[in-house]
Amino acid sequence: MAKRMITKEAFLTAMECTTQGWYLLSDKGGTPTPGEQLRMEEGKEVHRRAQSLHQNSVYAGKVERTKQLILDSAIEVIFEAAFEVDGYAARADWIRRTQGGWIIGDMKSSTFNQVGFRT
Fold it and tell me: Residue 47 is inside which H or E element, if any?
């Protein structure tokens, strides 16, 4: 597999929106269509609304931040919890602390702009 250089533009874009950063590096030509851009913006809004529903929630976004937040017993919900094990990475839309550990889930929006949670 050929190595690809990451441009400053792609890096800074990915810091704001990982999906849009991916588009810049993909074979699709680097620019999302207007429909794809709209879905990305709607996704950001869904996440903002979901976070507003939980007082004891925090945005992580990075592996090290997720580790710190998991250790803080005052945090009940972590949004964009990021994990990395043996070179594999994963990100959960949200994780919620329970007595026995953590529940993982993802968010979906409806046609009525309500935020739904699935575990």
Answer: helix 34-52
From the number of C-beta atoms within 10 Å of its C-beta (0-12, 13-18, 19+), residue 69 rates as buried
In a domain, 24, yes or no: no
Q: How many CB atoms lie within 10 A of CB 89?
A: 9
Q: Can you tell me the mean pLDDT for 10-14? A: 74
Q: How many domains does the chain have?
A: 1
Evaluate whether 83 touches 60 at the Cβ level (below 8 Å).
no
**Taking the complete model, does pTM exceed 0.70, yes or no?**
no
Residue 75 within a domain: yes
Domain extent, residue 94, equals 56-118
